[in-house]
Amino acid sequence: MVLIDTHSHIFSEEFDVDRDLVLERAANSGVLYHLLPNIDSTSTHRLLDTCHRFSQCFPLMGLHPTSVKEDFEKELYHVEEQLARNRFWGIGEIGIDLYWDKTFFTQQQEAFRHQLRLAKKYNLPVAIHSRSSFKEIFDIVDQEIDQSLRGVFHSFTGTINDYKHIDDYDTFYFGIGGIVTYKNGNVGELIPQMNTEKILLETDSPYLSPVPVRGKRNESYNLIYVAQKVAELLNLSVLDVAKQTTQNAIKLFKLQIDGVG
Ligand SMILES: [Zn+2]
């Protein structure tokens, strides 16, 4: 069985003491590949260093909405500089977050639109972070959408209407993570109605640990609990869920992985 963790922050300092062991544990449970979305210019070095050291990790470049502040133009310049200099598998994570702080809402909108355009320019998929902001995100994606714009709504927790809006874009996927295992996380009810060809699995580690390890530091090994829950909700075997979601991830991110696909 091969699983791909499509959203992991294994490069963050929470893993400095045992990063290699965490990746080994993940591999032992079938999680063989990892996509790593950046946060901002202060995390780029860790991100690239991790991907150099571990060939199963693929970097995404972008400015996270909660890192959009007064200096966001400088941060966007950094993103562009990196895109010109290094190879990346996507633009992320980008989006709008109105849950933590609305102070820089207009800057968040501008940074999001700018990075969607970078994705089109470089023909890369985007990893979208949306928190209390589906309407605001849709306003911009509706304007920017074309055949070349594709990506994933990471840690998707929207309503059926949000799902349908995104599904209508035709080129977007849904990142399903630990929240699907929570009793009050209503994304579980949506899973049986979702197109399985558009589902990706992710941990968002070190955050959002699934049941039965909720509250602890999350790591890619725990993707197995997400896969099990999705399999249960779809009435499929874990193996089938692994096969389908791995194929989906390879397709979206254009991963070249030997013997899988
Ligand atoms: Zn994230």
What is the compact description of this entry?
Helices cover 40% and strands 15% of the residues.
Structural features:
three-stranded parallel β-sheet, alpha/beta, TIM Barrel, binds zinc ion, 9 helices, globular, 261 residues
Summarize the structure in words.
By secondary structure, the protein is an alpha/beta fold. It has a single domain, classed as Metal-dependent hydrolases (TIM Barrel, Alpha-Beta Barrel), CATH 3.20.20. 40% of the residues lie in helices and 15% in strands. The chain is built from 9 helices and 8 strands. The strands form 2 sheets. A 5-stranded parallel β-sheet has the order 4-5-6-7-8, sandwiched between helices. α3 runs parallel beside α4 (105-122), α4 runs parallel beside α5 and α8 crosses α9. The longest helix is centred in the middle third of the chain and has 18 residues, at 105-122. The model has no long low-confidence stretch (mean pLDDT 96).
Please tally the β strands and state the result: 8
Number of domains: 1
The computed structural class is: alpha/beta
Overall shape: globular
What is the CATH C-level name? Alpha Beta
Distance between the termini: 12 Å
